[in-house]
C-alpha cells in the first residue's frame, strides 16, 4: 500500500473513531440500556426512595410494581415477613398515609368497612387501625396473598403496600387472632 492510500484512509478511521466514541457515550448515559444489566434495577433509585413514605413500608416503582428490595419485586405468595414479601410499616398516624390508601378499623368484632374494591394488578396501600384493647393480624385466606399481612397491637395503625392480584374476583381476609374470625372479624377485597 502506498503512503498516499494510508493518508486517504486516515479521515475515514477518524470518523469511525468519533462515531464509536459517541455511541459509547450515548449508551453509557441511556438508562434503558444500563438497566438491562443483571446487576441493575429497571426502577431508578431516586423514584424508589421518593415512594418510600412510611417507615418500613415497601416502595413502589414508577411502573407501579411493589418492591421487596431496591431491585426486586415483592411476591404476594412469599412467607409473611420474608425478604421477598411486601413490607408492613412501623406504627403510623393517619396523616402518614397516602391519599389513596384504604383504611380499615377493627373493634375486635368486625372490620369497618368489611369490603373494598381495587383494580387488577394495581399497587394498593391497605392500613389497619385497632380501636380496642387487643392485637390483630389481618391475613388473606388465598395462598396467592399469604405474604400480605398486617399485625398490630392495641391502639396501633400499620399499613402494607402490595400489588393487587392479576385475576379478578373476591379475596376473603380475616383476623388471625384466636377467636376473632369466628366472632365475625372477616372481610372481602374485590378485584376488578
UniProtKB/TrEMBL annotation:
Region annotation (Disordered) ranges: 71-94
Membrane keyword on record: yes
Any one Pfam family match given in the protein's UniProt record, by short name: Cupredoxin_1
Protein name in UniProt: EfeO-type cupredoxin-like domain-containing protein
Keywords of this entry: Membrane, Transmembrane, Transmembrane helix
Alphabetical list of Gene3D superfamilies matching this protein: Cupredoxins - blue copper proteins
Sequence ranges assigned to domain EfeO-type cupredoxin-like in this UniProt record: 100-183
InterPro entries: Cupredoxin, EfeO_Cupredoxin
Transmembrane segments: 12-29
Amino acid at each position: 500500500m502506498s503512503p498516499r492510500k494510508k493518508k486517504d484512509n486516515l479521515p475515514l478511521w477518524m470518523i469511525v473513531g468519533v462515531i464509536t466514541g459517541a455511541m459509547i457515550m450515548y449508551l453509557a448515559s441511556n438508562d434503558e440500556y444500563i438497566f438491562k444489566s443483571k446487576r441493575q434495577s429497571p426502577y431508578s433509585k431516586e423514584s424508589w426512595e421518593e415512594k418510600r413514605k412510611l417507615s418500613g413500608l415497601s416502595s413502589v416503582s414508577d411502573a407501579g410494581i411493589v418492591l421487596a428490595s431496591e431491585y426486586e419485586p415483592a411476591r404476594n405468595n412469599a412467607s409473611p415477613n420474608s425478604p421477598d414479601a411486601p413490607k408492613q410499616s412501623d406504627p403510623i398516624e393517619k396523616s402518614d398515609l397516602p391519599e389513596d390508601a384504604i383504611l380499615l378499623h377493627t373493634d375486635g368484632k368486625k372490620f369497618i368497612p368489611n369490603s373494598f374494591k381495587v383494580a387488577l394488578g394495581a399497587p394498593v396501600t391497605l392500613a389497619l387501625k385497632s380501636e380496642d384493647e387487643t392485637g390483630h393480624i389481618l391475613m388473606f385466606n388465598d395462598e396467592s396473598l399469604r405474604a400480605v399481612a398486617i399485625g398490630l397491637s392495641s391502639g396501633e395503625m400499620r399499613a402494607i403496600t402490595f400489588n393487587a392480584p392479576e385475576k379478578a374476583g373476591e379475596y376473603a381476609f380475616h383476623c388471625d387472632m384466636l377467636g376473632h374470625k369466628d366472632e365475625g372479624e372477616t372481610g372481602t377485597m374485590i378485584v376488578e
